[in-house]
Amino acid sequence: DWTRTPRAMRGWRRGSPPGPALTPLSPQVSVQLRRGHAARHAGAQVSGAAQGGHPGAESGPAHPRLPRRLKISHLDSIFLSRVSWANVGGLPGESLLVPLADPLSLLQQNYLKAIRLFPGPLKRMDLAVQLHTEPEYKDETMTVYQIPLTGEHWCCKGTGEACDEQMSARRHPDLVTAFLCKLFPEELCTPTDPGPVFLVLECPHEGFVDAVCQNETFRRYQEGVPEHQVALVIHMTPEAVLRDSRYQQWMERFGPGTQHLVLNENSSAVHNPRSYKIQTQLNLIHPEIFPLLTTYQSKEAEAVCPVPIVRGECLLKYHLRPQQEWQRDAVTVCDPDMFVSEALELPDFQTRVKECKERNVSPYPEIVFLGTGSAIPMKIRNVSSTLVNTSATRSLLLDCGEGTFGQLCRHYGEQVDQVLCNLVAVFVSHMHTDHHSGLVNILMERRRAFAALGQAFSPLFLVAPEQIMPWLHEYHNHCEEILGDIQVIPSQSLVKGCENIRPKAKEFLSSLLESYDLAEFQTCEVQHCKNAFACSVIHKSGWKVVYSGDTMPCMALVQMGKNANLLIHEATLEDGMEKEAIEKTHSTTSQAIQTGMKMNAEFIMLNHFSQRYAKIPLFSEDFSEKVGIAFDHMRVRFGDFPAIPKLIPPLKALFADDIVEMEERKEKRELRLLKETALVLDKLTRGDSTEPACQKRKQAKNNQELPDKKLKTVN
């Protein structure tokens, strides 16, 4: 929701110890908007940077200025204003990256209990939790006062649906926490500066307006007293709240010296220019296979407020010290013309592009790659998610990693609601977070989309390991209602030869097949973590798509995928890293291609690349006219198979520098391995010839020590 990074105030880099007596000469404290992976979700980050030296540092030179970009390792605390997916959805992924040392401000601990059900690092996650009932949180930078607000119960208002009051009480839908933040005075200033104050407030709907307007703590900071002057109010509020006359009067009471920042769906700035740049350049290679990205634009008109407001933009900053002011130098902007000119100036690029623009294909099935990276979302490759459009009105999602909804927004723009309504089923291959942590958001946004388009709601079929259910139950019981949005078909029950499929799951499977006009939906267990599955989809018209999920080379997958039209197979690591692939239970590029060859697949799309290959993976000698490389937002139809191998020469021209860099790294790694092997062999050789002498010396030493040991034993 919003985060603090007080470690940056200490003026030390990761890997060097902090000084015992750090005194920043001129601290710079700012509030910065963070980019999120979902188009509708925003947050703010408070950071401090020491612009002076730190004479107390024990090692390393004094750095006159910290790096401009804060490292994620500086993150100490996360404050959550309420338990909804828009606020807490990024926490599992963030927890994988950051060992949080300081408290997580949370309405309740059940959400943390729920995400610990995930396998891997989250299971061992250890976070200190400070509940909303705690009055304040303090560190060396500021004091954060927690202000619980109880609003009118709004979950079923106007919907005609009955509310489960007991379940609703567990979820706390009528409770949010605001945060009043007071920075400590600067020690070197005279007279003493009382320290800036800013307020972070979420008012999710009109039911909270009275609670906000009548809060006594807020009123004290609206009386014009200098030490209670609020520099900035961050409003995480929808337009309906901003239009409310009560809320507008409350905003006015802060006076002209307060800045107002609004974060909601109307904050539609591009959050990741790198992704747009790559897609714009890929679009030059093939406009149909690499369509241009769009941005989600809210259809709701912006409210007219009685006070000046600033609409949120990604990486917009508001400095609290030394001077209170907005800073826009880091705000993300896109310049498509510059992206195009950069690509056209590359050697051989235009020549290669001319060879691969032919296209005359049937529109369905259509495969849209939404996430082609592994482990964590990055600027260019998001984590696993692939949309299969079987017709103009039916779609299937293969895995659903963090940020999947945001990728749908960037790909489909204003059509995203219809795409969500077309989505009938989601297949989750296994329980690693990068394959399913976007599911809850898809469920929430899908329900909203049905209501927005006035269409009758229907639950989503969820084909997933049974082990996903404890997590979904925990979230449903303690956070938000979601179980009514899914009909679960356990992956285990779709393995060939399984006879103990439950009647309800059998009924759901029959409906799923009918919805997509499928002849078969089959799974097989693959060699990755426990309860990891691949799937095969066969249409009544005869086409067959196979999706590997995460796996090592696996004969069960080969058998299930026989004669597939398309195999989408993970290729996490490059050739030469077979040992690492075994350790991580993944496949190399050649192993993935060989799996496709063994099953006689018509075409193989490589997917799920390690983020070390952010732009493009290294090419294997096994590449042929039957192999392609997946990119985020790539759109593939069966008729594109002959054209996709022709994309490789322009791709090599576009990413020539990156390929050279990766090949150099590979050569260095191979050279290092050769040296290590030679060293081991040399030690073994010398060890054989000197072993008797070593044994004699060791035996003599033991004989000398023996009396002492006996003496100690007696004592």
From TrEMBL:
Enzyme class: hydrolase
Presence of the UniProt keyword Signal in the record: no
Catalysed reactions, as listed in the record: Endonucleolytic cleavage of RNA, removing extra 3' nucleotides from tRNA precursor, generating 3' termini of tRNAs. A 3'-hydroxy group is left at the tRNA terminus and a 5'-phosphoryl group is left at the trailer molecule
Spans annotated as Disordered: 1-65, 687-715
Main location (coarse class): mitochondrion
Top-level taxon of origin: Eukaryota
EC number(s) stated in the UniProt entry for this protein: 3.1.26.11
GO cellular component, one term: nucleus
Cofactor(s) needed for function: Zn(2+)
Composition skew (Basic and acidic residues), residue ranges: 706-715
Localization, UniProt: Mitochondrion matrix, Mitochondrion nucleoid; Nucleus
Keywords of this entry: Endonuclease, Hydrolase, Metal-binding, Mitochondrion, Mitochondrion nucleoid, Nuclease, Nucleus, Phosphoprotein, Transit peptide, tRNA processing, Zinc
A matching Pfam family: Anti-Pycsar_Apyc1
Gene Ontology MF terms: 3'-tRNA processing endoribonuclease activity; metal ion binding
Biological processes, Gene Ontology terms: mitochondrial tRNA 3'-end processing
Matching InterPro entries: RibonucZ/Hydroxyglut_hydro (IPR036866), RNZ2-like (IPR047151)
Biological function: Zinc phosphodiesterase, which displays mitochondrial tRNA 3'-processing endonuclease activity. Involved in tRNA maturation, by removing a 3'-trailer from precursor tRNA. Associates with mitochondrial DNA complexes at the nucleoids to initiate RNA processing and ribosome assembly.
Oligomer and partners: Homodimer. Interacts with PTCD1.
Family, per entry: Belongs to the RNase Z family.
Protein name from the UniProt record: Zinc phosphodiesterase ELAC protein 2
Annotated organism of origin: Zosterops lateralis melanops
